[in-house]
Amino acid sequence: MSALAGLVAALASGRVKVVDLTHRLDPDFPVIVLPPEFGQCARFRIEEVSAYDHRGPAWKWHEITMNEHTGTHFDAPCHWISGRDVPAGSVDEIDPAAFIGPACVIDCSAEAAADPDFLLQPAHVEAWEARHGPIPAGSWVLMRTDWSRRSGAAYLNMAGDGAHSPGPSAAAIEALLARGIRGFGTETVGTDAGQAAHFDPPFPAHYLLHGAGRFGLQCLKGLDRLPPTGAVLIAAPLKIRGGTGSPLRVLALVEEGQ
């Protein structure tokens, strides 16, 4: 049996399950809020074009509008100034093989529950590796915080000084890049912590990841359904010409018993 035939058989038998890590796109889903002097991210909007009526008697469809970085979405290198000159840095130019890779899930849910400003540090990465083995090159590294269980105002967790949500430190991203990761994903509205505008460099996950030609995934959900290792992540953005990112359906393949 070929590798692909084996995968098809495993999916059909349930030995390999498909786990959806994607939030539903709807007008109420929160988007990142920037200082008012900057342009803002648009929420998802949907408008009915026809519904088996005089506007189209046999069909129903919708007009949708949104920012590239709305809902569960992908960040390409050209999204950030540090990655603007990265070759093949837009979503339409990235090798599609780069969208599929093994997933390593670092569970920070207890820490995030105790401190909304929790930062992933190299020591957390090293502790994870001591238990699960080295992070393989080419991996998607996902920071589980269970933040996706929040909704509405609690999801952004805004205060007078901006958002308060967990994320990685610059040192943690540097440590992961040294391991040759494919990309980094979070359950929060961005790959950076809510207060990351004040870090050095500002928004280090964006700055360091995209400057290195790596990818970001944010607004993931249900990372508690994945094992620490062994899952395969499929995260293919829309093929937008010159696109800096895209909403997408993030799927994980998980083998029974993991």
Strand-residue proportion: 25-35%
* Mean pLDDT across residues: 97
The number of strands is 15
- Give Rg in angstroms: 19 Å
Task: Provide structural commentary.
This protein is 19% helix and 26% strand. With 258 residues, it is α/β, with parallel strands linked by helices. The chain has a single domain, classed as 3-Layer(bba) Sandwich (Glucose Oxidase, domain 1). β11, α6 and β12 form a beta-alpha-beta unit. The mean pLDDT is 97.
Short description:
By secondary structure, the protein is α/β, with parallel strands linked by helices. It is built from six helices and 15 strands.
Fold blueprint:
Elements: H1 3-13, E1 16-20, E2 45-53, E3 56-65, E4 73-75, E5 100-107, H2 109-114, E6 119-120, H3 122-132, E7 140-144, H4 153-156, E8 158-159, E9 162-163, E10 167-168, H5 170-178, E11 183-186, H6 204-211, E12 215-218, E13 231-234, E14 245-247, E15 251-255
Helix pairs in contact: 3-5, 5-6
List the defining traits of the structure above.
258 residues, alpha/beta, Glucose Oxidase, domain 1, nine-stranded mixed beta sheet, two-stranded antiparallel sheet, globular
